[in-house]
């Protein structure tokens, strides 16, 4: 039986901040912990969107492709989908959406998976560019990133809301990715306007963090909370 009551996260957002971009879990293993989620590939190579048990990579050249089971990721969050809220949602932008959803579904101090399927008046994404070792920091690596946009796009937003307290372990607040139905547009979501869509929310009491304890660079790193907080606010919002 697939556990639908927890988020499984490999790595931390914080480990990306100093540039620990080596993949430390295979996509195949990751998908045994969830059928839906988000992440990035080895070398900070693009944005990962996991929907219905398939993992896709949005690349910096704008292409989207399915990820093979032996490819690796430094950071990803997944869960098995079983939403406890399903509601139609119309004509709202990202800022209003986030305020409403936190208020209406009591998310403030709760982990939640967010999924929105529908038609979007506008969608704006960005994609992290692939890095080569020796790796730069996250802020340096993401200083210039290709951005993509579409109008009247059908597709799916997937991602998470996490309590602010967990900033560093993950992104405190919303962290959402997008994949269009035709796989022509994807990435880390920068903004959207909903035309008509279905919102699904899954609340979680449990958040499982799985650390890359066989990775030498991870073992040696001395993390600094303040640097991590600033970098996440700069690179992930
Ligand atoms: Zn992202």
From TrEMBL:
Pathway: Polyol metabolism; (R,R)-butane-2,3-diol biosynthesis; (R,R)-butane-2,3-diol from pyruvate: step 2/3. It is an enzyme of class 4 (lyase). One of its GO terms (biological process) is acetoin biosynthetic process. One of its GO terms (molecular function) is acetolactate decarboxylase activity. Keywords: Acetoin biosynthesis, Decarboxylase, Lyase. It catalyses: (2S)-2-acetolactate + H(+) = (R)-acetoin + CO2. Its EC number is 4.1.1.5. Gene3D superfamilies: Hypothetical protein, similar to alpha- acetolactate decarboxylase, domain 2 (3.30.1330.80). InterPro entries: Acetolactate_a_deCO2ase. The keyword Lyase applies. Pfam families: AAL_decarboxy. Belongs to the alpha-acetolactate decarboxylase family. NCBIfam families: acetolac_decarb. This is Alpha-acetolactate decarboxylase.
């Amino acid at each position: 039986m697939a556990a639908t009551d927890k988020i499984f996260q490999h790595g931390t957002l914080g480990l990306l901040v100093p540039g620990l971009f080596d993949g430390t879990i295979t996509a195949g293993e990751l998908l045994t912990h969830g059928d839906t989620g988000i992440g990035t590939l080895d070398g900070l190579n693009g944005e990962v969107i996991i929907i219905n048990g398939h993992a896709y990579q949005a690349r910096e050249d704008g292409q989207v492709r399915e990820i093979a089971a032996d490819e690796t990721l430094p950071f990803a969050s997944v869960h098995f989908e079983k939403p406890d809220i399903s509601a139609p949602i119309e004509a709202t932008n990202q800022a209003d959406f986030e305020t409403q959803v936190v208020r209406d579904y009591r998310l403030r101090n709760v982990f939640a998976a967010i999924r929105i399927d529908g038609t979007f008046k506008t969608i704006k994404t960005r994609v992290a560019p692939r890095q080569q070792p020796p790796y730069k920091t996250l802020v340096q690596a993401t200083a210039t990133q290709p951005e993509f946009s579409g109008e009247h796009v059908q597709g799916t937003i997937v991602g998470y809301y996490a309590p602010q307290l967990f900033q560093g372990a993950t992104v405190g607040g919303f962290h959402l990715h997008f994949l269009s139905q035709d796989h022509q547009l994807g990435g880390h979501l920068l903004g959207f306007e909903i035309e008509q869509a279905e919102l699904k929310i899954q609340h979680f009491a449990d958040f499982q963090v799985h650390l890359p304890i066989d990775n030498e660079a991870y073992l040696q790193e001395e993390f600094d909370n303040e640097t991590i907080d600033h970098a996440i606010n700069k690179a992930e919002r």
